[in-house]
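Cont'd.
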Amino acid sequence: MIDYESVINHKIKNIKPSGIRKFFDIASEMENVISLSIGEPDFNTPWHVREAGITSLQKGSTKYTSNRGLTVLRKEICAYFERKYHVEYHPESECLVTVGGSEAIDLAMRCLISEGDEVLIPEPSFVCYNPLVQMADGVPVAVETTEEDNFKLTPERLEKFITPKSKVLVLPFPNNPTGAIMEKHDLEKIAEIVLKYNLFVISDEIYAELTYNNKHHISFASIENMRERTVVVSGFSKSYSMTGWRLGYTLAPKPLTDVMTKLHQYAIMSAPTTAQYAAIEALRHGDNDIKKMRDEYDMRRRLVVKRFNAMGLNCFEPEGAFYAFPCIKSTGLSSEEFCTKLLKAKGVAVVPGNAFGDSGEGFVRVSYSFSIKHITEALKRIEEFLKELNEEKQHET
Amino acid sequence: MDKILSLLRENSQLSYSEIATMINEPEDYVEKQIKQYEKDGVIRGYRAVIDYDKVKNSGARAFIELKVQPKKDTGFDEVAKQVMSFDEVETVYLMAGSFDLLVRVKGESVTDIAMFVAKRLSTLDGVLATNTHFQLRTYKDSGMVLFDEENDEDQRSIIL
C-alpha cells in the first residue's frame, strides 16, 4: 500500500477544503431545491458568437495557436480595453490569452510572489485567491471590508495590514460576493498606498461589464502611475456569458507578460482555439449582447434588493456583478445555520457569507443570475422562512 | 418597445410593484400605464403559453395559405372578416408575397381540418386557391423554446 499522504505535496495538503461542502451535499440530495447560489450567468452565449466558434471548427482551425493567443484576438482585446477603459496595451507584448480568468490569476500570483511575500486580499472575496497564493509560497493576508464602507477597500484598512513583507495587492472589483464596486476616487486613494509601499496589484476585473446605476467600471490600470505596476485580469465568461469556453486574458507591462507567457507556454501551451475565434466575434459585435444582459441583471438586482430590505434583511445596494449580499444578523443565526435551515425548511439554496472569508459571517450571497420567475419563487420562500423563524422566536419567549 | 410591455410580454404575471422596482419607476405610474395600454387596446389580454405537444387530445393545427381576389372597394378585408369569424380559425394575417391570407386553423383531427378547408374556406366567394400545411411539432412559440428534447437541466456549478 502506498502512503499517499506522504506522497502528496505538503502545500496542497495544507489548503483547507471548502468549508461549505457539507452544506451542498445536503442540497444535492434534496428534491425541489431552488437555487440562488450559482456564480455564473444564466444566459446562453449569444448565437452569433457560438456560430463563430462553429465556423472555425468547420474550417478546420483546430490546432494550437501561438502561445500568447491569436494575434487578431490580442489586437481586438487591446482595442476593446482602450475603447472602454482608456488604457493602451501593445497586443504583441503586453497581452496574454489564458484559460479563463482563473489561469490568469494563477499565473500572476506565481510570477509575482516569491517565498514569504505577503499578498493583501480584500475580504469577503472570491475563493481562489488564498489557495493560489499558498501554492505560490506566498502568505495571504485578509483585509476586511465592511458594510459600513459599502464593502469598498479603504486606504485606512489597507494600510493597517501592510508590513515590510507586503508585495502584492489583489483588487477584486466589481466584487464577488458583495457586488461592491470601486469608483475613481476610491481607487486613487488606494493608488497612493500602492505607491507609498511599492506594491504590485493584481486587478481582477472579470465583472467589469456588469456595473449599474450608470457607474461605469474604472480600470485600476487607468489610475495615474498604476499601469506599470498592475496586472489586469479579465475574460469573456461574465461579460459575454462564455463561462464554459474557458477564455480570459492578462494585460500587463512587457516584462511581466513575458514571464507569465513563459509559464503559460509550459503549463498550458495555448488557450482553446475554438474559444479564441468565438471571442474575436464577441469583441467585434458583442456590445449589444452585453447591454441586453446587463439591463436584465439590473432589473433583477432592483427586485432582489428591494425584496430583501422589505422582508427585514438589510441589503446594501450592490452596484456590480450579479450578487446581492443581505445581512442576516437580525435572525440571530450564523450564516451557515441560516443557509442550512433555509435549505431544509424551504429548499432554497444560498451561499453562507463566511465561505468568502471570515468577514462574510453574518451575510449570505444571493445570486440573481436566474430568471425572474425563479427569483420571485425563491424570494417568496425566503419570506415565508423568515416569518416562521419569527413565530418560533415569539413562541420561545 | 416600452419596457413595461417587453416585461409583460415575457411574463404577464408580474405585479405592478415588481415591474415598478425592476424599471425604477413609481408603482402608480406603472399601474396607470398598464391600464392605459389596456384601454387603448395595446394590451388585448393575458394568456398562458401552452405546449400542445404535451397536452393529450389537443387536436391538430394547420397553416393555410389563401389566394384571394381582392374586391374593388374593400380589398382583402371582406374575405378576411369572413375567414376570421369561424371558430376554427385562430389567426389571420394579410401577407405580402405569393399568397394573400395566412390562416392558422385548429381542429380535432387532420381530417377535420382538411374538411373545414374544403367545405368552408375554399368555397368562400373571392378565394381562388388554398394550400394547407399541417403543423407537426412546435419548436418555439412566442419567443419561448418548447422543444427541450435534451433535458436542459441547470448544471451550473454551485459555489464559484
